[in-house]
């Protein structure tokens, strides 16, 4: 075999090839020069066909249509239809009724019907029906039933013959106990509004319940505002009844440290002293006062027994309220405990019966069908008991409570721990 060592002559008609590769495309012609000496690229052909896709390559995805959904712009709306949240008028009626002001509660709630006409808010109507039932006002009940048919286009509640009659008080509605719930997140602005209400209510001679149970955060300015208002009402001889003091004491205790002299923590110390004193725990107060005095190098505050709330003796009219009977297990359902009457002044015996019954059940049902009223003190005890049972893994349900009792339980936050509803 003979190999040629000479270069192939040009113009032999055969294109040059590269081993293992495709034939190269011819080089594009250089752009034509223009008059100013610069070069300008040649424009692409207007009707040039697109380059063919490489063999075996996946086709390009189609462009999304203009009507496609943008998932980042979609939102989920959750509607609360449980009725767990009371409006302002319902809260006022619940508070009045809990304090024995049944007639005042009915008058207050009746005045809101026109404003909520067309809203089909069942809670307001159910409360007013129950108030007329408790007051034994059959004519008002029947009149409300006619309005109910127009509003809801359905059958109204029926009058219960021989039902319990609530005790009424001759005191005017203005003399009923006031209720002020502190916000969960306390700052200078929202606390100032509640303190103004506290001072105004106390100066009018109305006893006040200050609810601290739902507070989860408090800043130094809010502590100072509340302390100032609290001390102001004490100067005029008013004593504030505290609900949820343990929660506030725990919250404030976490914000201070004995021996750490921080001016911003002083309002926490002083509010903690005031709250501890209001609970009547003198030993805890005096120990805290010594820690405060050592930390800030001042004289320790003195105990003032007049700042401790003392419940007034019940009036004679209150004797008309159906007294709470001893809870009894249902004869039909072994997991159901039946309660009845008005649960007042802590209802210690009933709370213990619930505790004992719940210790034998994993899902106890508390039948409130015949419970006529629950006051603030008892609701507070029920809240503590509910927390205790939840921590033990007991699933509690409160069944068949009337609208006013259910409203009170929800107002105190018990509905956040146990189920309220059903029969």
From TrEMBL:
Residues 41-64 have a biased composition (Low complexity). InterPro entries: STAS_dom, STAS_dom_sf. Gene3D superfamilies: STAS domain. Residues 1-66 are annotated as: Disordered. Residues 365-423 form the STAS domain. SUPFAM superfamilies: SpoIIaa-like (SSF52091). This is ABC-type transporter Mla MlaB component. It comes from Silvimonas terrae.
């Amino acid at each position: 075999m003979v190999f040629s060592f000479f270069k192939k002559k040009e113009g032999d008609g055969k294109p040059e090839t590269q081993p293992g590769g495709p034939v190269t495309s011819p080089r594009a012609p250089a752009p034509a020069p223009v008059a100013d000496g610069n070069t300008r690229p040649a424009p692409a052909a207007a009707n040039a066909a697109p380059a063919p896709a490489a063999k075996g390559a996946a086709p390009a995805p189609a462009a999304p249509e203009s009507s496609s959904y943008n998932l980042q712009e979609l939102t989920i709306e959750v509607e609360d239809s449980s009725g767990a949240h009371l409006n302002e008028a319902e809260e006022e009626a619940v508070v009045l009724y809990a304090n024995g002001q049944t007639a005042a509660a009915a008058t207050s709630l009746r005045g809101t019907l026109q404003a909520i006409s067309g809203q089909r808010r069942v809670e307001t109507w159910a409360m007013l029906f129950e108030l007329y039932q408790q007051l034994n006002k059959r004519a008002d009940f029947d009149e409300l039933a006619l309005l109910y048919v127009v509003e809801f286009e359905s059958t109204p509640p029926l009058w219960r013959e021989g039902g319990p009659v609530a005790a009424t008080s001759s005191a005017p509605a203005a003399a009923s106990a006031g209720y002020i719930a502190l916000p969960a997140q306390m700052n200078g602005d929202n606390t100032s509004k509640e303190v103004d209400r506290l001072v105004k209510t106390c100066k009018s001679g109305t006893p006040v319940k200050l609810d601290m149970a739902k507070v989860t955060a408090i800043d130094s300015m809010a502590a100072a505002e509340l302390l100032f208002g609290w001390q102001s009402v004490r100067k005029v001889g008013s004593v504030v009844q505290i609900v949820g003091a343990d929660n506030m004491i725990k919250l404030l205790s976490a914000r201070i440290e004995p021996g750490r002299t921080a001016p911003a923590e002083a309002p926490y110390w002083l509010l903690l002293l005031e709250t501890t004193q209001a609970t009547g725990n003198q030993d805890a107060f005096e120990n805290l006062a010594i820690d405060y005095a050592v930390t800030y190098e001042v004289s320790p505050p003195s105990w003032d027994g007049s700042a401790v709330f003392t419940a007034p003796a019940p009036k004679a009219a209150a004797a008309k309220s159906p007294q709470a009977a001893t809870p009894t297990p249902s004869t039909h359902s072994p997991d159901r405990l039946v309660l009845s009457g008005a649960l007042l002044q802590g209802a210690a015996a009933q709370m213990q019966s619930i505790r004992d019954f719940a210790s034998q059940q994993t899902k106890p049902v508390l039948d409130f069908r015949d419970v006529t009223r629950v006051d603030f003190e008892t609701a507070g005890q029920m809240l503590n008991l509910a927390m205790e049972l939840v921590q033990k893994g007991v699933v509690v349900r409160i069944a068949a409570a009337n609208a006013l009792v259910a409203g009170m339980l929800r107002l105190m936050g018990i509905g956040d721990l146990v189920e309220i509803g059903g029969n």
